[in-house]
Amino acid sequence: MSTNVSLDDRDAARDWLTRLGYSAIAAVHPANLLPDQLPEPPKGCTVVIGAGKAAAAMAKALEEAWQTRTPEAELSGLVVTRYNHGETCQRIEVLEASHPMPDTLGEQAAKRMLEAVSELTEDDLVISLISGGGSALMTLPAPGLTLEHKQTLSKALLRSGATIREINTVRRHLSAIKGGRLAAAAHPARVVTYLISDVPGDDPTLIASGPTLPDDSTPADALAILEARGIEIANGVREHLSGNHSAPHRDDPDFNRDEHVVLAKAADALQAAQKQAEEAGVEVRLLGDDLEGEARELGRDHATMALKAQKETTQPLLILSGGETSVTVRGDGRGGRNVEYLLGLYEALAGAEDIYALAIDTDGIDGSEDNAGALIGPDTWQRAQERQLTAGDYLARNDAYSFFEALDELIVTGPTRTNVNDFRAILVLPRNS
């Protein structure tokens, strides 16, 4: 068998699954995607703005391609990315700020972006580089609101189990720059936006809360989300969301010249992994690129699926999925949605033999920890029992990071400088191999 996945060599199976995850990440890196997509230089100047965990890598790829194609054309701008996610650029300034909790540096970056595009003409071009994480990194409260308002709500939304759609809908309507407001400030210049999607369904208006794309949601929608999630709403926030503060609408004629391109999405990472697995002779079952829900519950569901598949398959099977799960925080442990998913799966597998699983965030950071995710194999259960580690205890306090750290099962990639959200792979080996 050409897979190097053998019941006689468990390390080979682990290594194969790990390499598959790295290949999926490489397939969605901006250096491999952006250079061939760039527009022609305008009559006037070109200003680059951007935000997200991939923003610096996107800026570097753009600048290098621009220098090769049109070195004489004017190019300037600034992007903001997460701390330690920066790159070195010559013409585009790279700023760093906090994620997932916004800080004053992100607020300052947002102000500077608005200033950079505020006096352009129709002969000028704005290139917007947007990726997941940009919403927290580019935080500019709407008039009458404060950064503290945004920080308090961000923390509450993240702990509530809210989906990324819900979180970013709220963010758009509390912002002076999101929901198309950055593009509105740049008009009449043409705005071309390149996106790396981290949202299930790849709705461009949701990626980093759509700073350069018009929005169809309303302040009332944001208010309803906060109320449905039981989040305490400060008087100033409630007053703002009860007023007439809608974002620019897609019918605004100023948006007619604008364009957006989704460079990469979760489906691309999954397809790269699927291709590599099938070339190795492994059957692939793709569950979808937009799975959501409570992380631990999805893990348990996938464990049931894997156990059933193992009884039926006669060759190695790879179960792939992407998307973004949620974690309702009830404890004070360390963790992220991928390790919580994996711990739920591990608990439900209950030591089943010949099943391996990997779950990582493609940006290299699972939640706010230093790991991308984790990996389990058939021996994980036995080693956990020997150390008296009980999955239920760790799940109760949302401490999946500590569980896998104790077993040396964490996957640490460092910042990957891309972000299409979760990548999950379960390798099921037939019991009769």
Report on this structure.
Helices cover about 35% and strands about 15% of the residues. It has 15 helices and 12 strands. The protein has helices at about 10-25, 55-70, 105-115, 135, 145-160, 165-170, 180-185, 220-230, 235-240, 265-280, 295-310, 335-350, 380-385, 390-395, 400-405, and strands at about 45-50, 75-80, 90-95, 125-130, 190-195, 260-265, 285, 315-325, 355-360, 375, 410, 420-430. The strands form 2 sheets. A 6-stranded parallel β-sheet has the order 3-2-1-4-5-6, with helices on both faces. It has a 6-stranded mixed β-sheet with strand order 7-8-12-9-10-11, sandwiched between helices. Helix 1 crosses helix 10, helix 6 crosses helix 8 and helix 11 packs across helix 12. It is globular and about 65 Å long.
In short:
The protein has 433 residues and is an alpha/beta fold. Helix content is 37%, strand content 16%.
Could you tell me the strand content as a percent range? 15-25%
Average the pLDDT over all residues and give the rounded result: 94
Which range best describes the helical content: under 10%, 10-25%, 25-40%, 40-55%, 55-70% or over 70%?
A: 25-40%
Q: Strand order, biggest sheet?
A: 3-2-1-4-5-6
Global structural class = alpha/beta
Number of helices: 15
Q: Biggest sheet: strands, sense, closure?
A: 6 strands, parallel
Q: How would you describe the oligomerization state of the chains in this entry?
A: single chain
